[in-house]
Amino acid sequence: MNGNLTRRAWNSGGTDGWTGETGSLAEELHIDRIAPGDREAQISWRTNGKGEGDSRACLLEVNLQAAGREPIVRRFDADEDHKSVTISGLDNGIDYRVHLTRLSGDGSAATVVGPARLFRCGLVPGTIVNYIHPEDRTYEFSGRSTASPSIVKLPDGRLVVSHDVFWMEAGQNLSMVFRSDDDGRTWRFVSYLYPCFWGKLFVHRERLYMLATSTEYGDLLIGCSEDGGDTWGAPTILMKGGTRETGGPHKAPMPVIVHRNRIWTSIDCGAWKAGGHRTGMLSAPEDADLLDAASWTTTPFLPYDPQWPGAISGGSLPNLLEGNAVVAPDGRLAVIPRYQTIGGTPNYGRTIVLYADAERPDAPLVFGKTIDFHGNMSKFTVHYDERSGKYWSLVSRVTGTNAGQRNVLALVRSADMERWEVVRDILNYEHNGWPENDRQVGFQYVDWIVDGDDLLFVSRTALNGAHNFHDANYTTFHRIPSFRD
C-alpha cells in the first residue's frame, strides 16, 4: 500500500516481560489476569523474569473494601507452579483490592510489593477470559475497559482470544492476548501488544496474525506470532494514521476471508469528530508475504450517501462502519456494515449492502441494496456456514425504545443474506429479575467462529457494576452447542 516495509516494535509479554513507558506493567510482581465470578476470583500474575529459581514465599493478599471486614490472606511458595490462585468464599457486589507481596526466605519481611488491582464478584454468563474494574488504573495509559474481543482457533486446536483496553479520550493503544488449551474451559494470559488497538486475530497458512491499528485512528498495522501468541515480531505499517480530529484508519475485529485467491477484510477511514466514516476493502494475494506492505491493496473509501434507496431519513450522524466481508449467494464480494441510524427514521433495524469487485481490488465499492437487519446499531460479525447453507450472526437485538440497547444477544440467520430471522436469544438480561438495566448491561462487539457442530464466541460484556453498558468490564467466552439445530 505505502510500498515501504516499515516496522515498529511490538512489545509482548513473553519471558522478557513488558518494556517501555507503561508504569506498573513493568513491576516485578504484576497481576496480569483477574476473573471474578460468583463469590470467587481467579488471580494470576507474572514476575517479569526476576527472582526466578529462589525459594522465597509469595503472599497473596485480598482486602475487602467494606467496613468491618478482615483481609483475606493466602501464602505459598513462589515457584513456577504457582502462577495463579482461586479464592472462594467472597461476597458478590462489593469491591475487593488485591496485591502481591514477595517475602524474604523466612517470610519475615516484604521484599517486593506489587501494584494493587480492583475487582468485584458476581454472576457472569459463560467463562471469564479477563476482567478490568472500571476504577482500576493499571492500564490507564490505554484505558479502563475491555473492548474489541477477537477469537481464533490455532491449527493445533488451541483457542486464542484478544481484547484491547479502551476509555474515551484515553491512549487506546494496548491489547492483551489470552489462550485456552482445553476448548475454552480455562484461560491464561500470554502477551501484551503495544501499540495495538481494534485488533483482529486470524490464521493464514498456519501462522497467527494480528491486524490492528496503533491507536484510535492511528497507523494500520499487521504482525505475526510463530508460537501461538506468546511472542510477536515487529509489525508492518500498512497505512499511516491520523487523529480523532482529522480522521484515519478505523476498524474493529471484522472477518478476514479468502475469496478468489485473495485475502479480504473491510477497513474504514474517517472519525466521528471528522464527520463520520467512509467504507473500503483491504486485500492481498493469499500466497503473498502479508508482512510486506507492498502486498496489500485498498479500495477507494466510499462515503455514505443519504440518497441511497432505502436509506433512513434524518439522524444525528448517519454513516457506515465496521463492515463484514462476505461472499453473496451470487458469488459477488459484499460488505455488510454497521449502520449508524440513531435519531433517524427508522432508528433501528436496517443496514446497507455494498459490493466490491473481486477482480479489481483497487476498484471502488458500489451501493447494492438496503435490507432489514436486527442489531445494526452495534458491531456484529457475519459468516457463511457451508454445512447449513446459511449466513449467521450474533446481534444486539432491540426490544424497547432504546435503539442503542445491547443487553439482549440474539442468534440470527439468513438463507439469502437479505432476509434475516431470529433463531433465539442467547443472552437476555432484560427479564428474570436481573437488577441492572439496558443502560448498565451489554453483550456486544461479539466475534465468533464455528467449531464442528458448535459456535464459539467472545463478548465485550458489561455487567456487575460496569461504568455503563458501553464501557465493558469483562471479556467472556461462550459456546452454543449444535447451533445449526
Features:
single chain; 485 residues; mainly beta; six-stranded antiparallel beta sheet; five-stranded antiparallel beta sheet; 36 strands; 0% helix; disordered N terminus; Sialidase_sf
Describe what you observe in this structure.
By secondary structure, the chain is an all-beta fold. It is 0% helix and 47% strand. It is built from no helices and 36 strands. Strands 18, 19, 20, 21, 22 and 23 form a six-stranded antiparallel beta sheet that branches. Strands 3, 4, 6, 7 and 8 form a five-stranded antiparallel beta sheet that branches. A four-stranded antiparallel beta sheet has the order 9-36-35-34, with no helix packed on it. The chain starts with 29 loop residues before the first strand and ends in a 5-residue tail after the last strand.
Task: Give a nutshell description of this structure.
The chain is mostly beta strands and 485 residues long. The chain has no helices and 36 strands.
In terms of structural class, how would the helical and strand content be classed? Answer: mainly beta
Percent range of helical residues: under 10%
Mean pLDDT: 89
**CA-based gyration radius:** 22 Å
Q: State the oligomer.
A: single chain
**With helices defined by DSSP (H or I, 4 residues minimum), what is the helix count?**
0
